[in-house]
Amino acid sequence: MERDDLASLAGFFSADQPLAPGVTVLLGQEAAHHARVRRIEAGGPVFVVDGVGARGVGRIVRLTKQDMQVTLEQVHRSPRPPEAHLLVPIGDKDRMLWCAEKCTELGVTSWTPILWNRSRSVSPRGEGSAFRERVRARMRSALVQSHGAWLPDVPDDASIDQVLADPSPSETRLVLDVSGEPIGHTHLSAPVTIAIGPEGGFDGEEFRQLRAARFRPVSVGANVLRFETAAVAALAIVRAALGASPEIANG
């Protein structure tokens, strides 16, 4: 079951039970509404993803206004791709949500919001537990839309001190800076962590801390980019360089 095989099917997200051939997955009211909007009837084929590596194809066996049941016929499991992590600034809510969506489509491993010093002047900021749930909901939708298999981790909002502590010896650490070497000229090996600055950039002390913590300055071009544009551009280059893991069939 290649990703292209899913192109004509409606997709749904379910993390409530393991996906396996023969399993009947219960989906809620939102999924049932989506199926009715798509004019899918009982017996129609759909796919389900669980966010932890499995994508299953099956058929609707029950559809009501309250819920939907799908019996899976095939399930394919994908190992997690080489790790690519983003440290994104806490910033404008809508721009953060767009960034989260596009980074999910590109297969980011984790997406950690950071309160940089210049993030504090932004209003309204995307922060706190309620906003993280909005981010996760947007990511689930993006995962289904992109036929992905792995949902990104979204840790709690963090400070610079928390994210700089105890780097892995094998970790490639990058910080976006317009004066850095082109990211495409940089040797990349997983895991990769990319720090993205806020509007107005890092302040001097933050940049010194990043450099002291082995973050290497890299650039995605000569222009100063919005943080969400920079994040997507850098992640796309890194993900292409790292490649992806092959799929493993299961049923």
Could you write a compact summary of the structure shown?
The chain is of the alpha/beta class.
Using brief descriptors, characterize the structure shown.
251 residues; alpha/beta; Ribosomal Protein L25, Chain P; Alpha/beta knot; 2 domains; six-stranded mixed sheet; five-stranded parallel sheet; 11 strands; 27% helix
Notes on the protein architecture:
The protein is of the alpha/beta class and 251 residues long. It has 6 helices and 11 strands. The chain has helices at residues 29-37, 93-105, 129-145, 160-164, 204-212, 227-242; strands spanning 10-13, 24-27, 45-49, 54-63, 68-77, 84-89, 110-114, 172-182, 192-195, 216-219, 248-250. β3 (45-49) and β4 form a beta hairpin. α2 runs parallel beside α3 and α2 (93-105) packs parallel to α6. The longest helix has 17 residues, at 129-145. The radius of gyration is 20 Å and the shape is elongated.
- Count the helices. How many? 6
Average pLDDT number: 91
Q: Which CATH first-tier class of the largest domain would you pick?
A: Alpha Beta
Quantity of strands, as a count: 11
Q: Mind telling me which CATH architecture of the largest domain this is?
A: 3-Layer(aba) Sandwich
Number of domains: 2
Q: End-to-end span in angstroms?
A: 10 Å
Residue windows where pLDDT falls under 50 for at least 5 positions: 245-251
Largest sheet data? 6 strands, mixed
Structural class: alpha/beta
Q: What percent of residues are in strands? A: 25-35%
Q: What's the helix-strand series?
A: EEHEEEEHEHHEEHEHE
